[in-house]
Amino acid sequence: MRTTMDVNTNVDEYIRTRDEIRDIESRHKDELRPYKQKLEELGAVLLEQLQAVGGDGVRTKSGTVYVTEKRSASLADPSLFMDYVIQNSAWDLLDRKANVTAVTDYIAEHNAAPPGVNFSAVLTVGVRRK
Questions:
Q1: Fewer CB within 10 Å, N- or C-terminus of the chain?
Q2: In the prediction, which pLDDT does 3 show?
């Protein structure tokens, strides 16, 4: 650890080190891009295969593939949503953001998302090693 009291030298070294980290992270990201793309493509193929057989999961000799669902409930109009929550005392919908579980339950009951909420559910696959 450098203990030199020359602030200018330390600032210069800090900036150079920060820039080196940024460059390495950028190269790392570029190097990983094709692998991440390949995983995304394989995930889409596996999801199609699971949907074609109507299954939620398949165990193979290499591992198990299964369907997962990632839910999201972002606010399209935060003011409209908050007005609705307050006027209807629907506090269970609130989690300083739209509560995904409560919004999912609300949609199941009302066949629509609460006012001001964008809801999405994306199916993905997970793969576990044997």
A1: N
A2: 64
Strand-pairing partners, residue 58, are 65
Instruction: Name the strand (E) or helix (H) holding 58.
Output: strand 57-59
Q: Could you tell me if 75 and 117 are in contact, meaning their C-beta atoms sit under 8 angstroms apart?
A: yes
Q: What would the mean pLDDT of 18-23 be, rounded to a whole number? A: 94
Indicate if 128 and 65 belong to the same structural domain: yes
- The per-residue b/e assignment along 98-113, b for 16 or more CB within 10 angstroms, e otherwise, is bbbebbbebbeeeeeb
Number of domains making up the chain: 2
Are 32 and 61 contained in the same domain? no
Mean local confidence (pLDDT), 39-44? 94
Rg of the chain over CA atoms, in angstroms? Answer: 24
Q: Which residues contact 99 (CB under 8 A, 6 or more apart)?
A: 73, 92, 93
Residue 2's pLDDT is: 60
Q: How far is CA 100 from the centre of its chain?
A: 13
Cβ 113 vs Cβ 119: under 8 Å: yes
Let me know whether 71 and 124 are in one domain. yes
